[in-house]
């Protein structure tokens, strides 16, 4: 390309003012410097851009084409600069999110709603396709934030602890396990295990079943917590889910929840970002909202107002369990 942004500004200024002198005043250039630049542009393009008619400079056919192009180019560049400035100040940007567990997506919608009220200039996108390996997607630049229970080892990441949860075995009230104080992994060998995700992507299967070296009688993948609970109630299988996810069903006595092993099986969840993006104001606010409204808060009925409204804004929007 022969032309630069300064050339487009120069041509636009001459066309607008009709004079090299006045264009020079607009661009803070001397008449001599501006005339030299104009001759340079015409030399590069091999075309005359302006006719002098009396005291006025009028664009030629080539000049009119360049003036029209300059209007588009300068508007586009100006808009991009404005968006970049706002993004650097935390007023605008894109927040791409994924989690390491499908059930966590049930927790996010009310948080996202409150976040978008406080930050309407931030485009929030949920990437469920990255659930199988959100840390890899984060490292590859496909995500901005991952909610995971796997501690990252990449030094480019910043980890923000959120909450701990307990994995419980849920069974029908009439199931033989219902009166037990705990269930051990090898007890599941004679059971149909209901999983939220494929066993290759399942936190439960990979961290509990595989490590125990046992194989359940059968495995079924059911990608809906409510459906898993209904099958458990009917005595058609058992499941291992987070305590916060099945608390309503346990309180209603629809299912029984038993600790996995005597000491229980706990996970620590964290929000992971790249270190640079963790400093963005809207990113810090989103992480604060996640940490203040964790799903394991028993009895929590509504989100707490933890976000700050930006000045001048108007209020308006894996390994799986």
Helix/strand layout:
Layout: H1 5-17, H2 20-27, H3 31-45, E1 50-53, E2 56-59, H4 61-88, E3 93-99, H5 108-118, E4 122-126, H6 134-139, E5 145-148, E6 157-171, E7 192-195, H7 203-212, E8 218-221, H8 225-233, E9 238-242, H9 243-251, E10 256-259, E11 265-274, H10 281-292
Parallel strand pairs: 3-4, 3-5, 7-8, 7-9
Antiparallel strand pairs: 1-2, 5-11, 6-9, 6-10, 6-11
Helix pairs in contact: 1-2, 1-4, 2-3, 5-10
CATH homologous superfamily annotation of the largest domain? Periplasmic binding protein-like II
Computed over alpha carbons, the radius of gyration is: 30 Å
The coarse overall form would be rod-shaped
Enumerate how many helices there are, as a single number. 10
Chain-averaged pLDDT: 85
Overall structural domain count: 3
CATH architecture of the largest domain: 3-Layer(aba) Sandwich
Question: Can you describe what's shown?
Answer:
By secondary structure, the chain is an alpha/beta fold. It has helices at 5-17, 20-27, 31-45, 61-88, 108-118, 134-139, 203-212, 225-233, 243-251, 281-292; strands at 50-53, 56-59, 93-99, 122-126, 145-148, 157-171, 192-195, 218-221, 238-242, 256-259, 265-274. The two termini are 54 Å apart. Strands 3, 4, 5, 6, 7, 8, 9, 10 and 11 form a 9-stranded mixed beta sheet that branches. The longest helix is centred in the first third of the chain and has 28 residues, at 61-88. A hairpin with a 2-residue loop joins β1 (50-53) and β2 (56-59). The chain is 38% helix and 21% strand. It folds into 3 domains: 5-88, Arc Repressor Mutant, subunit A (Orthogonal Bundle), CATH 1.10.10; 93-163 and 267-292, D-Maltodextrin-Binding Protein, domain 2, CATH 3.40.190; 165-266, Periplasmic binding protein-like II (D-Maltodextrin-Binding Protein, domain 2, 3-Layer(aba) Sandwich).
């Amino acid at each position: 390309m022969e032309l630069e942004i300064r050339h487009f500004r120069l041509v636009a200024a001459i066309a607008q003012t009709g004079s090299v002198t006045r264009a020079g005043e607009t661009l803070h250039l001397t008449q001599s410097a501006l005339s030299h630049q104009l001759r340079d542009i015409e030399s590069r393009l091999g075309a005359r851009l302006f006719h002098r008619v009396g005291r006025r400079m009028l664009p030629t056919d080539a000049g009119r084409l360049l003036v029209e192009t300059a209007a588009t180019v300068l508007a586009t560049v100006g808009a991009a600069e404005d968006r970049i400035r706002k993004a650097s100040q935390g007023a605008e940007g894109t927040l791409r999110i994924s989690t390491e567990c499908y059930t966590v997506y049930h927790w996010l919608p009310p948080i996202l709603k409150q976040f978008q009220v406080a930050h309407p200039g931030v485009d929030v996108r949920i990437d469920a396709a990255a659930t199988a390996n959100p840390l890899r997607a984060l490292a590859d630049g496909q995500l901005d934030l991952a909610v995971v229970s796997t501690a990252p080892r990449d030094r480019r990441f910043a980890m923000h602890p959120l909450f701990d949860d307990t994995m419980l075995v849920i069974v029908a009230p009439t199931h033989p396990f219902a009166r037990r104080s705990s269930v051990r992994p090898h007890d599941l060998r004679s059971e149909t295990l209901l999983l939220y995700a494929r066993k290759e992507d399942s936190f439960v299967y990979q961290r509990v079943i595989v490590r125990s070296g046992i194989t359940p009688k059968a495995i079924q993948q059911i990608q809906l917590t409510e459906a898993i609970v209904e099958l458990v109630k009917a005595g058609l299988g058992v499941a291992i889910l987070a305590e916060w996810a099945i608390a309503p069903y346990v309180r209603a006595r629809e299912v029984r929840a038993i600790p996995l092993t005597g000491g229980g099986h706990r996970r620590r969840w964290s929000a992971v970002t790249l270190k640079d993006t963790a400093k963005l104001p809207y990113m810090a606010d989103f992480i604060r909202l996640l940490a203040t409204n964790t799903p394991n808060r028993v009895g929590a009925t509504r989100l707490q107002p933890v976000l700050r409204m930006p000045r001048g804004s108007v209020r308006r929007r894996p390994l799986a369990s």
